[in-house]
Structures are given as C-alpha cells and as structure tokens.
DNA sequence: AAGGATAGTTCGAAAATCGATCTAAAACTG
DNA sequence: CAGTTTTAGATCGATTTTCGAACTATCCTT
C-alpha cells in the first residue's frame, strides 16, 4: 500500500511499438512447426501476465485520481469479488483463488479502512460473514465509472463487442481447465 | 524464490463450482442496466487478475516437476520474453512492461543461475546485450513441452482454436489500448 | 467426552515492488 | 574540447506482498 506512481524507468515511455523485430507471435524459440503457426496456449499465458502487469500500472493511476490511495489495486479488486453478496472468507477465497493467509491479510486492511464489514455468523461462530460497507460500495461505483471509459475505448462496435464476449467466455473456460488441472495434479501428490 | 508449493488453505480444494449464487457475471453491484447485460470491461479485468493468480499456482507446480525450482514463474516468463533474440535491457523492459529495477533484479538472478548471458554492447558500452544461454533455451523447451499439454486441453477442435485466436487478438488490442491510455494519462502529469 | 475436521487468523521469513540514487557512457552545445 | 544533459542500467533501502506453518476457536462425529 502507499505508492506515489510516477514511474521512472518503466515501459511507460515506449510502447511495444518499439524498434526491431515484430515481437508479436515472434518472440519465442521456434513456433513455425507443430501448431501450424496458430496462437499457442503459452502465448496467451504470456499475454495475460503482461496485461496483468500493465493494468496494475493503469489502475494505480486511476485509484490515485479517485482518491482511493489507501488501497492496493488487488484490494480494490477484492471488493468486486465480494460484490453485492454476503459471504464467508472461504467463499471469497474460492471465488478469487486467493491463498488463505493472503485473503486474511487483505481483508484485514479492507476492514480497517472501512470498506468491508465483518461479523460472525450466527449459525457457525467460526465463520465470518463479510460484505461491503457503504464506503466500499461507493468506491466500487467510482471504479465502475472509470471503467466505463475503458469499456468504450475497447468496444467501439458490434464486432468488438462480440469479440469481447468470446474472449471472456474463452478465458472462463481456460480458468476452469486450469483449476481442474491443478486439482488433479495435486491429487497425485496428496 | 524458494517455495515448496503444497498450498494449505488455498482454493485448490474447491473450484468456483461452489455453493450458492451463480457468481458468473453476477458478483458485482448492478449491471443489468446500461450495457444491456453484456460482458463489461471490468469483468474481463477481474478475470485476467484471477487467471494470472491461478496460472501462477499451476505453473509453480509444473516448474517443480521440471526441476526448475531455482526460478520464480515470473522469471521463467522473462526467458520467453527474451526469446531467441539478442536484446538490450531496455528492449526487455518495453516488451514485458517491467519496471526497470524489477527487470534488473530478475535479470540478475537469471544470469546468476546461468539461464541468461549478458555482455556489453560494442557500439554503446552503457548498453547490455542479453540472450538466453543453452540452459535457458533448454528450460524453455521443457516448459513449451508442458504447455503443449495445456494447449491440447484448451483447444480441442477448430471452434476452440478460432476462439483462442480471437481471444489472443482481442487481448492484444486491449493491451495496446491500455498502453495508450497510460501514456496519455501520464502525459497530462509530465 | 474425545478426536478430528473446519474456519479463519497470526507470525516470521523470504521475496517482490518501487522510487531514489548512483555510475558510466553517450550525445548535445556552445 | 570542456561542460552539460541524456540515457542505460545497477543498486539501495524501505515497504509491501507472499507463503506456509503454527495456532485458536468452533463444530462435527462417534
């Protein structure tokens, strides 16, 4: 938490539109063979990693503008993962694939900063019930407002809307595939 | 670096296929209005964040199996960002959207561990030339092999291949949009 | 009631992040 | 050419994050 942005040596100044090679699907050892030149899973993974890093930079700036400089991007995202629901920490963990201790850590900050309310469940007193506070909901509104700007930049016509939908659907499918793979992978160990 | 995996309280045990609500496009404050219920940019962002976290878990396990337990997932990804090329640190930074000091930090480890070779440029002696070593290339081969397994899980027919291509193309477009937004956003400040 | 599973937190060590320096080598500028 | 400014990149120190291993408290089973 607490970061003043204003990147120094970051990639900010230079887009991928840099000099030499294409860098598009070209920046990895041989790929001409095998998949007949189509996009490989690994390229997508790399893209996701890059996008994630990129969005963090962008989002941090936006959060600063909004005035939510007491939260890290990941913490704000966590607010959206909670959403309008009233859930247990376990549910939150499952939704966001968080590690238990990390979820606790971030949740603690969210509660301390007043974005999330926590109370003990009546039925099971081990279990905590979490939900957004008004402050939390307000922040979500603001973020959603900012995001609409990006939405408009990204989907400018029906074709792009359709692509976005396919993209979302595909990513969800991949998410599911990975989760399965992870589960069965661990099964061999356990 | 150095992590023994074997998550404890992680989401490993429970997929998003958990109890109560749908959670699909449902876990955020109101979205029925406006976009006519279609996928919003923000949902995609959240998905990317989740996928990133998820893949980290998966990849760490794979790296362990491969025997590359001296590198973090991000560092291995950096190898692919270097790819077959011979580039300067600046190029690497631009390609991967790294922060300068982080790139240095990771690069140092890659060089120390023998995956990357660095030498000074002849023309500009400030500039370093970076490239994969044999060891680095070998690791990339191994990872690529593992990845082919996931590729087959994810694209099982032509339709899915087409979706993957659209997804990749769309994500690249978004990446570009964000980079632009970030650049022009910072411009106002600078 | 005893033993085990579950929910969630806390702790300490390790690692990652970030911006501010800092060095060295270009590249300008007069 | 001396003087200044830029650029490439490494390094430093402070902060934040990540992770797994305890640990506490409650619940469930028998």
From TrEMBL, chains A, B:
Report the superkingdom from the record. Bacteria
Database matches in InterPro entries: HTH_MarR-typ, MarR/SlyA-like, Tscrpt_reg_MarR-type_CS, WH-like_DNA-bd_sf, WH_DNA-bd_sf
Name the keywords, alphabetized. DNA-binding, Transcription, Transcription regulation
Q: Which Gene3D superfamilies match?
A: Winged helix-like DNA-binding domain superfamily/Winged helix DNA-binding domain
> PROSITE patterns of this UniProt entry?
HTH_MARR_1, HTH_MARR_2
Gene Ontology molecular function terms on file: DNA binding
UniProt key word DNA-binding: yes
Q: Tell me where in this chain the HTH marR-type domain is found.
A: 41-176
Question: Can the keyword Transcription be found in this entry's annotation?
Answer: yes
Instruction: Provide the protein name.
Output: DNA-binding transcriptional regulator, MarR family
| Species of the source | Chelatococcus sambhunathii
